[in-house]
Amino acid sequence: MAKHGKNYNNAEAKLDKTKAYSPKEAMTLVKELASAKFDETVEVSIRLGVDTRKADQNVRGSISLPNGTGKEVRVAVFAEGEQARAAEAAGADIVGSDDLVAEVQAGNINFDAVIATPNLMGKVGRLGRVLGPRGLMPNPKLGTVTMDVEKMVKELKAGRVEYRADRYGICHVPMGRVSFTVEQLVENYAALYTEILRVKPSSAKGRYVKSVAFSSTMGPGVKVDTSVTRDFLA
Questions:
Q1: Rounded CA separation 184/154 (Å)
Q2: Angle formed by the axes of helices 182-198 and 23-33, to 10°?
Q3: Per-residue pLDDT tens for 33-83?
Q4: Exposure string over 7-26, b if 16+ CB within 10 A, otherwise e
Q5: What is the percent of the chain with per-residue pLDDT over 90, rounded to a whole number?
Q6: C-alpha distances in angstroms, 79 versus 3, 45, 62, 105?
Q7: Cβ(164)–Cβ(171) under 8 Å?
Q8: Stretch (H or E) spanning 46
Q9: 14, 40, 100, 195: which has the fewest Cβ within 10 Å?
Q10: Residue pair 138/87 in contact by the 8 Å Cβ criterion
Q11: Are 35 and 219 a contacting pair, CB within 8 Å?
C-alpha cells in the first residue's frame, strides 16, 4: 500500500468513506481538500462493467468539454498545401509532412495531440511505434484523421479530451483545474458522463457504471453517486 503525506491523510480523514456524494458536493470537497501549492488537475475516474479484451466492448472516443481543461495543448498537424495553411491559421503549433515525420523519427516529440489528413496517413502510419505508446496516433474514430483540420485544431485547443477504458475498465479523464469554479468542473463532468452513458456497448452485461470518483492531483478520491444522470448541479 502506498504511503501518503500528512496533507493527504488529513484530507482523507474529512471524507465519509461510506457515502457517495452528489457531483456538486464531491467537486466542492475536491476543491476544499486540494492542498498543493500549484494549480492541481481535477480528474474523474469512471469504472465500467465492460471487458475491454472484447472488441465490441472497447469504450473509446473524444469530447469537447464546455469549459476546457485549463491546460495549454500543443497540436501537431501532418498536412500539406491548403490543409497545412488552414492548420496554421487555426493555431496549430507544428505543421509539416515529410519534415515532421523525420522530426518524430528523430525523437523530437514536443506536442500533446496529433492530427493528420487522410492522404498522409501512409507516412504517419510508419510512426506507429513512436506515437502509439504515447496515445498520440491519429485515429478516424476520434476525429483526428480529417480533412477539416481547422475545426479539429480549434477543438483540441479549446479542451477536447479523449476517454478510453483501460484493461481494468476504468476511464481516467481530466476535468479541469482546482482554480475552476465548482460549476465549471461539474458542467465538464456532466458532458463526459452523458457521453459515457451514450456510448454504452450493447454487448455489455450487468451494471454498466460501477463507480465514479473525483480527485485532484495530490488529493484523495471522493466517491460520486453514479445514479445522478441529470440535474448534475443539484
A1: 20
A2: 130
A3: 998 899 999 999 999 999 999 999 999 998 999 999 998 899 999 999 999
A4: ebeebeeebeeeebbbbbbb
A5: 84
A6: 47, 34, 21, 17
A7: yes
A8: strand 41-48
A9: 14
A10: no
A11: yes
Provide the residue count of the chain. Answer: 234
Find out whether 113 and 105 touch, Cβ atoms under 8 Å.
Answer: no
Give CA–CA dist 124/118, Å, rounded: 10
> pLDDT at position 1, please?
45
pLDDT at 196: 97
Q: For the residues 149-159, what does the mean pLDDT come to?
A: 93
Please report which confidence band the pLDDT of residue 113 belongs to, taking 50, 70 and 90 as the band edges. very high
Count CA within 13 A, CB hemisphere, residue 194: 13
Residue position matching grid coordinates 459515457: 196
Positive or negative: CA dihedral 10, 16, 21, 25: negative
Q: If pLDDT is split at 50, 70 and 90, which confidence band does 10 have?
A: confident
The model's pTM: 0.83
Q: At what angle do helices 81-90 and 149-158 cross, to 10 degrees?
A: 20
Cα 182 to Cα 216: distance, rounded to the nearest angstrom:
13
* Residue 199 to residues 55, 57, 74, Cα–Cα distance (Å): 14, 10, 28
CA separation for the pair 221, 152 (Å, rounded): 32
CA distance 194 to 197: 5
